[in-house]
Amino acid sequence: MYCVKCGVELKKGAQTCPLCGTMILVQGEDGKIRFGDLVENPEPSMYPKYTGEPEKVNPHGIMFALTGLFTVALLICVLTDVLMTKKITWSGFAAAGLASAYVTWVLPWWFKKPNPVIFFPVAMASLLLAALYVCLKTGDNWFLPFALPAGAVLTAIIETVIALTRYAVKKVRHRLLYIAGGTLIALGGLCMLIEFLLHVTFGTPMIWWSVIPLASLFLLGMVLIVSGISPKLRLFIYKRSFI
């Protein structure tokens, strides 16, 4: 192949003419124009082209390995505790923590498409059961009056957010502002509930510290909700937050 301007012979792979500097444009077999792609008399490849599919990793194999690790860790804790103290003492707390961690982080991945709407309440239930075990083993009575209602309300708030985000938003982006605003207001109410439960369960004085996060989160939530209603304000927030 030769340069269209000066006629000098061009080498394979040249992008510009070595004599006059003219750019080389070549039309390929597919009809598209490419920059500096001379493919006349292509050299044969030393190795055959690989046409096989890449090896896929079996996710169930990883899950079996993780399950084995959790099981071994659990057995080591229990056996060590029994050999040292002749009974189950601290290993019960370790077992409760390991079981809760397994349910939260490993169990969902046994399924092809884990649904957070289903698995989040399951994970929270495992955490509450672990807290119940700790409460019973230590002889305290804080689970029913404090941990259970606070955990249940927190679970309800987050579960509602997950469900709305997954099923109600879809392509209507500004609904996220309603969800975020409502979530902030609900979290403010949760702060007040926690202060009340601490007062009832542990006898701490009501100094109404929860009013500060309640008022702050309520104002922020209302700003987001109003932004969802007003298109101009919503556009301003999108631009400022690079959404």
Secondary structure layout:
Blueprint: E1 25-27, E2 33-35, H1 59-85, H2 90-106, H3 116-138, H4 143-169, H5 175-202, H6 211-229, H7 231-241
Antiparallel strand pairs: 1-2
Helix pairs in contact: 1-2, 2-3, 3-4, 4-5, 5-6, 6-7
* Helix fraction bin: 55-70%
- Largest sheet: number of strands, sense, barrel closure: 2 strands, antiparallel
Radius of gyration: 32 Å
Shape: flat
Low-confidence segments, given as residue ranges, are: 38-42
Structural write-up:
It contains 7 helices and 2 strands; from the N terminus they run E-E-H-H-H-H-H-H-H. By secondary structure, it is mostly helical. It folds into 3 domains: 39 residues, no CATH class; 76 residues; 103 residues. The chain has a two-stranded antiparallel ribbon. Strand 1 and strand 2 form a beta hairpin. Helix 2 packs antiparallel against helix 3, helix 3 runs antiparallel to helix 4 and helix 6 packs across helix 7. It is flat. The relative contact order is 0.05. About 2% of the residues have low confidence.
Could you list some keywords that capture this structure?
7 helices, 243 residues, mainly alpha
Short description:
This protein has 243 residues and is mainly alpha-helical.
